[in-house]
Amino acid sequence: MTRLEFWQGNTACAEGALAAGCTFFGGYPITPSTEVAEHMAAKLPKKGGVFIQMEDEIASMASIIGASWTGARAMTATSGPGFSLMMENIGFAAMTETPCVVVNVQRGGPSTGQPTMSAQGDMMQVRFGSHGDYAIIALCPASVQEMYELTVKAFNLADKYRVPVFLMADETIGHMREKILIPDKVERTERKPFEAGTPPFRATDPDMVPGFPQFGTGQHVHVTGLTHDERGYPCATNPKLHMALVKRLVEKIENARDEMADYNIINPDAEQVFVAYGAPVRTVQQVLHDKPGKDIGFLRIRTVWPFPEKALATFRNAKRFLVPEMNLGQMAREIERHVKVPVVSIPKLGGELHTPAELIAALEEMV
Amino acid sequence: MSFEDWYRQDRLPHIYCAGCGNGTVINCTLAAIDQMGWKKEEVVFVSGIGCSSRAPGYILTDSLHTTHGRALAFATGVKMANPDLKVVVFTGDGDLAAIGGNHFIHACRRNIDITVICMNNQIYGMTGGQGSPTTPKGCISSTTPYGCAETPFDLCELATAAGANYVSRWTSYHVKELEKAVRVGFETPGFSFIEALVQCPTAFGRRNKFRQVMDHVEYLRSHSLLRAKRDRMLENGEAIPEDMYVVGELTRRNRPALGVKQ
Prior knowledge:
The complex is a heterodimer of chains A (367) and B (262).
Chain A: E1 2-8, H1 9-19, E2 22-27, H2 34-43, E3 50-53, H3 57-69, E4 73-78, H4 80-96, E5 100-108, E6 114-118, H5 123-128, E7 137-139, H6 144-161, E8 164-170, H7 171-175, E9 177-183, E10 222-224, H8 239-254, H9 257-260, E11 263-266, E12 272-276, H10 280-290, E13 296-301, E14 303-305, H11 310-313, E15 320-325, H12 330-336, E16 343-347, H13 356-364
Chain B: H1 22-36, E1 43-47, E2 62-65, H2 71-81, E3 86-92, H3 93-99, H4 101-110, E4 115-120, H5 155-162, E5 166-171, H6 175-187, E6 192-197, H7 213-222, E7 224-226, H8 227-235, E8 245-252
Parallel strand pairs in B: 1-2, 1-3, 3-4, 4-6, 5-6, 7-8
Antiparallel strand pairs in B: 5-8
Helix pairs in contact in B: 1-6, 3-4, 4-5
């Protein structure tokens, strides 16, 4: 049995979080993500969960990390300026391997930019924004349905890999309303159990993810953002240990790239191939609808980080990859690293979606 | 069980300099915890960055050593998500009052049920002795080489004004009083703030004419003004000398608190 609803994307995100068993939300109001917080504020207390409005986004990010260590599924939601403030503690979450979900409903930047307009300008910031080397997972929804489904998935990936996971939505998807099918129940991945008495940050499994020693269970775990040994103790001047720790933090995500790849391929024999994620997906879909046939290929990506590079190789006859993005070509540059044929960035700033005509014009422009 | 059982023996030696006052404060805190009869698995220590914030790493409980100034925001998440846990925060003057000032006043305003112990050495010790928001006027630090020109914060007045249920100030000289204050802080629902003025011979003392560790401790003792005496002086219309620190229990009230176990 499923249920049919007509929801806004941000509502679907909050409902997805509730379905996933999120019991803690710490947030700060910011356009265009505020509806996520408002919905959680209304619903969480009735389900025995905690909603708390923190004093800023730095504190919001800190609060969900604290909550996560007590075993709670914890989330925050924000947009560009708040996302910048969260960078400090996002690095802390990566370093301490704290599962948590951060929703970024992207708006036009830099700075305060365009609070009410759509953008995808934070795609590199989400990957590299905090200092030092680390890796994260980022998902991009292109419909209200995916706001729900990818939020559920974000919690599962966060718990499985012990990493902050980002739902990189945009104002278009966050604020649009469309029909959505709500499943009766959703899949749930639990954190790897902790073996009592073992060093809390020892990762012996091939997935390089240590078990989770939840606070309050008598494990006496010390959690620090400093470079730490397997016991969790600061060890900040040992070069080899730092190298091993940071490599593990990155490789546990990068090595699972294929496992968590999430994309669709349309017309794999085409010579001209669109690659899109988030709101621009919808314009490409319109182009494919207007120009039926097998001539236009399409790779639509949901798991943007780690980037599913193998998907590009599916298009063996590709002569060009066309990448419409609501930024100045952030992911186009990533795609360029993986293919030998030209990559054409189709940037659009200002808050409006690409029109089908703009994409068709790019398609018809000769190389 | 003695309070010494609360230490992680495998973490020794610690990083604190000879003569540092922080150890006294940690001892007082653990003695108070021991008196409370709390179990190790129900206590979580949270801290930010700085000398004071290294303390949780030496204590055999769950502990969260976080980012600079943010300890109270992390602690808020821990406590709200699991009110069964006793959450204790170690912080310092720079961590709490400079970079963490906003989190401090909001944690007081929420009156969240945690206990915060601030080791106030009036300087940034870990980074080598820069001026902090509590560096007294005229004092020398590496960033106030001609004497601090700014007015310091009174952390206790700040906590009281912002809404904390319990506020107390002592120094590293007043061991028994400090221990009792921490215990009362633990017992009081809501936000409890205990400021402990501590000597820092390495970064503060040597720049400010405290040639021996005990010179500084003696200064803290002789410049402590009991709250009761301060109140009498005020009643008599006497002026309170500017270089005196009012010590004792400064606030104790029962405002509605957040995160109290139901």
